[in-house]
Every structure is written in C-alpha cells, then in structure tokens.
Amino acid sequence: MKFGVLGYGKIVRTELAPAFAEAGHPIVAVGSRSGQRPEGFEGSVHASYSDCIQDPEVEAIYIATPNHLHVPLSIEAMQAGKPVLCEKPAAMNGADFQKLKQAQAASGRALMEAFMVQHHPQWERIATHPWGAHKLLHTSFTYGPRLDTDVRSKAELGGGVWLDIGCYGLWACYQFGARQLKSISGEFREHHGCCIHAQVTLHFDELDAQIEVGGLHFRQQALTLITDRERLQVTRPFNPIGETINTYQTDDELSQWQDDANQYARMIQYFVEQADSGQFLFQERSALIAQWSDEIIKTLK
Ligand SMILES: NC(=O)c1ccc[n+]([C@@H]2O[C@H](COP(=O)([O-])OP(=O)(O)OC[C@H]3O[C@@H](n4cnc5c(N)ncnc54)[C@H](OP(=O)(O)O)[C@@H]3O)[C@@H](O)[C@H]2O)c1
User: Fold this and answer.
1) C-beta of 113 in contact with ligand 1 (< 6 A)
2) N or C: which end of the chain has fewer CB within 10 A?
3) DSSP letter, residue 92
C-alpha cells in the first residue's frame, strides 16, 4: 500500500519512515507546510496537506501533525476516499471524537488511531493472561522539559503532557479490562495553559488505576499491575526500544521474559491488512480513551 504522510516531524523521521520501509509499504508522497524535501526522500512533496491527500498515487494517509489537526485532516482524507492511520490522540475531546466517528461511518473508509503499543508482542502475552481480582494498576511516563517552541508547549496546538502521553496510561487501563469509569481525582499542573505534570487516580468498575505523566523529569516509563495473587512489572510498557524485560511474580513463581520487535512496523502491517475493511479499527478503545481523557481534563483542569 502506498502512503502519503502529513507532517514530517520527529516521529516520522525517527520511527515511522524506517517502519514503513521495514513493513514494505512505501511513503510515496509527503505533505509538509514548507514544501521542503525531507532528507533522502525521493517521492512527491506537496506544500499543502490537501494536495498530498488528493495525490492520485497515494492509497492511504498517515497523519503525524500536531494534535489539533488530527480530526480535520482525518475527515478530509476519508472524504477523499483514503483510509487513515492517525497519530494519537485521534481527537482532543469527546465532541471532536463524535465528529470523527460520524465522518468515518459516512465515508466507509478505514480509520485507526496509531497506538503502536498495541502491536508490541509483550502485550500479546499480557493480554491473554487470566489476571486475579482487585486489579491495581500504576503507570508512570515522564520526559524532560521541552522548549517553548515545541508543539508540546503550545496549548492552541493541543500541547501538554496529558494529551501527549496520558493516553498511554488510559490505553493500559483499557488493556487490563477497564470499561466503566466511576470516579476521578488527582492534580494537573500547568504552564502557559499546557499540562506539565499530572497525577490521576481512577476508579473503574473493573480496576483501580494511578496514572502519572510529566514533562519535568528524567525520561522514563514503567507499569506495575498488582492483583490479589500476583505482580507484573513492565519496564518499557509504551515505546520499547530494543529488548523489553518483564517480570511476573506470585507466591510460587518468579519469572522474566523478553521480547524484541518493531511495534511501529507491526502496526503499519496490521493497518494495511485491515485497510479494505472500511471499519473504524479499535473504535471502542479509541472512543473510551477520548471520553475518559475528556472527563479527566474537565474534572482536574
Ligand atoms: N506514536 C508515537 O510513538 C508518537 C511519538 C511521538 C509523537 N507522536 C504523535 O505524533 C504527532 C507529531 O509529533 P512529533 O513529535 O513528530 O512533532 P513534531 O516533531 O513537532 O512534528 C510535527 C509536524 O507537524 C507539522 N505541523 C503542522 N502544523 C504545525 C504547527 N502549527 N506547528 C508545528 N508543526 C506543525 C510539521 O510538519 P511539516 O512542517 O512537515 O508540515 C511538524 O514537523 C503528535 O500528534 C504526537 O502525539 C506519536
């Protein structure tokens, strides 16, 4: 499948361009505001995102712009008849998510939020395990301060750590079975209208969760799940680079396992295999994460 990429920034340069190559699905066109050719790229370069969407050689669109453009560009691409793989968060609030959902249904084109984390083999194993009762989930994801010029520092572009990486903690809640959110407490710290640190406690019918995200601390991530009979520690739960090492412990067992895979390439492969379905892939997951995120922002901001 031949892809057009909208917004050629850091995630494309570092992860997605190599992943498209590894998956064997070429980027044939780029939409980039400057119209500048990315280093080493030999396909078409369009100075307008719309022109890239309309390019007849482009069979599917991958969107990697700042967050505020995800919904309008996804809708434009689906209306142009192209399936869409869009970076997270697919929508910045519940109302925008509803617009996206309606546009997807009307267009009949496949849409998938680019939660690459889903496609790492460590989660395939974790997903099939029969977990015990009283699930308690802790997730933590931090990175260092960003310049004021960074898209993550600009509220009007959908910046802030919550919209950037809070979705991973919510993704983990969903992954361990959360569906019904009962209560929210915690704290959001902001700088220039952007969340720079959040500590969120969530009670679901199915589990309790504590999610911490921050843009002031050393780059790290971690996930622990505790139940009445076991503990799981995932050392790189969200964007593992290279080998992961996970630890599982009960009264009788202490085991570790390792996985290594390019989750971005696997995500692209999955999307291509499903692109003719015309479905909103993982729609329930995306809908719940958008809804919970919206409720959390409204409660804590
Ligand atoms: N899945 C993951 O692992 C992962 C990791 C990081 C980021 N992301 C997501 O990917 C998206 C892009 O993140 P990034 O880190 O690649 O950001 P980035 O380096 O700032 O790149 C964003 C690109 O968007 C385009 N753009 C359009 N309007 C813009 C504006 N007003 N200001 C600045 N840039 C604008 C620019 O591309 P052109 O100049 O070429 O048009 C820019 O290079 C975000 O939605 C983020 O949540 C996902």
Assistant:
1) no
2) C
3) S
Q: What is the pLDDT of residue 10?
A: 96
Cα-to-centroid distance, 8 and ligand 1 (Å): 7
Ligand 1 site, residue 10, Cβ cutoff 6 A: yes
Q: How far is the CA of 70 from the centre of ligand 1 (A)?
A: 10
Report pTM.
0.97
Rounded distance from Cα 135 to ligand 1 centre (Å): 35
Q: How do residues 237-268 score in pLDDT, each as one tens digit? A: 998 877 888 999 999 999 999 988 999 999 99
List all residues 6 or more positions away from 184 whose beta carbon is below 8 Å from its beta carbon: 200, 201, 202, 295, 296, 299, 300
Rounded CA gap, 290 and 88, in Å?
Answer: 10
Percent of the chain surpassing pLDDT 70: 100
Residue 297 backbone dihedrals phi, psi, to 5 degrees: -60, -45
**Structure tokens, 225:** 């799940």
Residue nearest to atom 33 of ligand 1 (CA): 151
Instruction: Give domain 3-116+266-281's CATH superfamily.
Output: NAD(P)-binding Rossmann-like Domain (3.40.50.720)
* Residue 47 Cβ contacting ligand 1 at under 6 Å: no
| CA distance between the termini of the chain | 42
Rounded CA separation 189/193 (Å): 9
- Domain range 121-260, its CATH number among 3.30.1330.10, 3.30.360.10, 1.10.10.10, 3.40.50.1970: 3.30.360.10
